[in-house]
Amino acid sequence: MKKYNVTVNGTAYEITLEVVDAADVKAATAPAAAPAPAAAPAPVAAPAPVANGGETVNSPMPGTILSVNVQNGAVVKKGDVLMILEAMKMENEIMSPCDGTIASINVNAGQSVETGAALCVIA
Known about the structure:
The chain has 123 residues and is mostly beta strands. Helices cover 7% and strands 44% of the residues.
């Protein structure tokens, strides 16, 4: 260890430096191995057809249902907002993928859901 006095912008500092071998410097500055590539994200499932010809609307991501804007038996058109899903502090509108009638609602406001969870069925 060696001690030095250094003045920076009029302020005096006492510093201590460690003496190292050239081999230690080369080892410390050698490039690190490249990290393994990240796994590809799981594909988001498209709405699944239901046995009676309807479609299941699935959650595109994990989150919390803030509001359900439709009721059983409600007639919806493609693009209508069915519910609001909060994920990562952002509100996401879950829209109807098709025209039809709400056959069932599988979630309630305040409920947590995972990716791919069935939110409702449109017949």
